[in-house]
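Lesson 9: reading folded outputs for more than one chain in a single document. The general rule is that every protein is listed as its sequence immediately followed by its structure tokens, and records are never interleaved. Here is the first one.
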Amino acid sequence: MALRARYTINPDKVYRIVMRTLNTSASALEVLGPPLTGTDLRAYVMSGGGLKLKNFKPMLGSRRCFLLFPIHGAERKGLVSVEVKKKKGKVTV
């Protein structure tokens, strides 16, 4: 279980991180209008994470998740596209 948690990416967790980031971003709130809300419609693609050789040593590649979902605020609508990379157990947006 610990290895799986370290090397997999949960798209729902990524969605929550991105929504929190957008709702605290002054520029996104200025353009779209507060409050920002997403929908249940989400598309994501997982890639990477396979075994590769580096200097003749087997290593695991980093996992990637491409997430796409619509968002709307009080004034406008938009589309969010995010690439998330998980390397050494940490998620980078």
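And here is the second record, again sequence then tokens.
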Amino acid sequence: MNILIIPTRYPNYFNPQSNVFYKDQAEALSQAGHNVSVLAVVPITIQEILKKRSLRFGYKVQNEKGVKTHTLTFPVFPKTKKIQQLLRA
């Protein structure tokens, strides 16, 4: 069976412990013999950027433990809705 998971948050470079539930479930489904893919759009806050002191944003594809993961990370700035919309486009 083909399964696509679209989580609200997903573990990433800036926050590796973010909603690990989705990752654990995807890996369990993959081990059960299913074809699992994850599509995650992850906003990164200013606090997370300052904590890591890095600007690693963009699209990343990984295949880990049988789960193909497509992740798009982008910065989120408070009170700048129009700029955020431009960054996502």
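What the second record shows: Strands lie at 2-5, 35-44, 58-64, 67-75.
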